[in-house]
Amino acid sequence: MKLINFYIENWANDGINDGYTPLPNGVFDFKFKQAFAVNNFTGVIDEIRDSQLQSSLNEIFLKAQYGQQRYAIAFEHKDLKIVLTDKAKLEGANENYYLVTPKVHMEDLSEYLPYYDTILEKGNKILFISFHESGVYPTFYKWINQNKYAEQIYTITPSYNIEKFSKGNHIFFPFLTYDLDHNFKNDNSMFSVCSREMADTTAKRKLILSFNRNVKREHRFYFYNFCKMQNLIDDNYISFLEFPDEHVQFYNTMGLEELETYKKFYLENYPHNEVSVDVKTDDPGYVENLLHNWNNDSWLYAESLFSIVLETKFFERDIMISEKVLRPIANCHPFIVIGPRYTTKILEDMGFYIPPFINYEYLDKEEFPWLRLVKTFEEIRKLLKYYEEHNELPEFDMDKIEANQTLLLGFDRSEVLYGIYSKLIKTKII
User: Fold this and answer.
1) Three-state DSSP class for 29?
2) Whether residue 267 is found in the same domain as residue 287
3) In this structure, are 272 and 249 located in the same domain?
4) Within the chain, how many helices (H) and strands (E) appear?
5) Are residues 201 and 153 in the same domain?
6) Which residues lie closer than 8 Å to 174 by C-beta, 6 or more apart?
7) DSSP 181-236
8) What are the pLDDT tens digits along the chain (430 aa)?
């Protein structure tokens, strides 16, 4: 059995059966409002998340099995076991890491960085784990790049190309793990996913389904104006929320005529009202679920032909894919994805089929993101013209779309984490 020790520096005694609660590393004192209960750690994590602390506790802790001492089994699968202890060097461990989990972003940890220097000076390796976010965080990566102990710093994040701008040792945490707890269900519940049978037997009312909650992201802003000028919004399931009115003047078109036209069109056509799909109930919880684009209703997928997904990132240097592209995959829906370069390569490397509606290879060759966006709109116009002329989508394999769903819903959490954590045994991440 291979053993990895995650060193938790400070633990709080909650006063029940002499049990102990770990504190996020970098934090020395925190008064819990509720007692720690073995194997029921959700409330403790929520307290930390709701606090002002920037270091946090995450899924590693939620799944941990705690004993009565400063010790917990965080993960155990096949020949690998990970434990949380109060020891910097655990006897018998293959590797020891001082574990740091930011609340959201690595940049949140800025106040702790000088202290982490003292941990590195003692010869410890530090492991930063962020399951859900990545970015080119200037303070955090400057700290790594200028650190004489950079080789002792490790990260696990959803950033696909972090090694391009950061020293240290980095492990890519694939986006599919956004659904590690299987939020997408195929169980006929209220928000159950769309099945192949449902997709095949439901009459199609709309061509496109596209959720765009935050139009303040520039690529979604330009997509909104593209949709307006192509007359797509009124007759499709397309939502646009949180408009960027006060920021538009600062958006960069890089002199591209099409983007200049969209910006001018937007500024000359106030006001801009939120656009949502036609939800079937006034229940606030239902509507909130729908607008947050998480477990969206299966009928939206069943009644439309394909999705257009605008990922979180597009112009940024770092490449990250979020849960957004998981939604059509989980709902057995053909899709176009507008995201960072090599988005489709990452998907294909994981075994997913990409419907050939647009030429991604042609798009990925374009390094200039503004021009890549214009070329993407050009490809979508070609697709719309094809549909108008043939009353059908270009040939694609619906069996492979169903296989996408099966693959996603069948991912084994333990297998995914095993593959990621096993890389920590190596002295250098490759």
Assistant:
1) coil
2) yes
3) yes
4) 15, 14
5) no
6) 158, 346, 350, 416
7) T--S--SSSTTPPPPHHHHHHSPP-EEEEEEES-TTSHHHHHHHHHHHHTT-STTS
8) 999 999 999 988 765 545 678 889 999 888 877 766 554 667 777 888 888 899 988 767 767 777 768 888 999 999 999 999 999 999 999 999 999 999 889 999 999 999 999 999 999 999 999 888 888 899 999 999 999 999 999 999 999 999 999 999 999 988 665 665 677 888 887 778 999 999 999 999 999 999 888 899 999 999 999 999 999 998 999 999 889 988 898 999 999 999 999 999 999 988 888 887 755 555 555 555 555 445 568 889 999 999 999 999 999 989 998 888 989 999 999 999 999 999 999 999 999 999 999 999 988 889 899 999 999 999 999 999 999 999 999 999 999 999 999 999 888 888 888 999 999 997 554 4
Please tell me the pTM assigned to this model: 0.89
In a domain, 430, yes or no: no
Same domain, 107 and 223: no
Q: Which domain holds residue 340?
A: 181-409
Contacts 24+ apart (CB under 8 A), 71-79: 72/22, 74/6, 75/414, 75/417, 75/421, 77/414, 77/415, 77/417, 77/418, 78/418, 79/1, 79/2
Rg (CA), the chain: 24
- 211 in the same domain as 309: yes
Q: Can you tell me the distance from the alpha carbon of 84 to that of 127, in angstroms, rounded to the nearest whole number?
A: 13
Number of Cβ within a 10 Å radius of residue 164 = 12
For the chain, the residue count is 430
Q: How many domains does one find in the chain?
A: 2
Residue 341 lies in a domain: yes
Same domain (yes/no): 390, 418: no
Do residues 61 and 207 share a domain? no
Do 156 and 59 contact (CB within 8 A), yes or no? no
Residues 159 and 192 in one domain: no
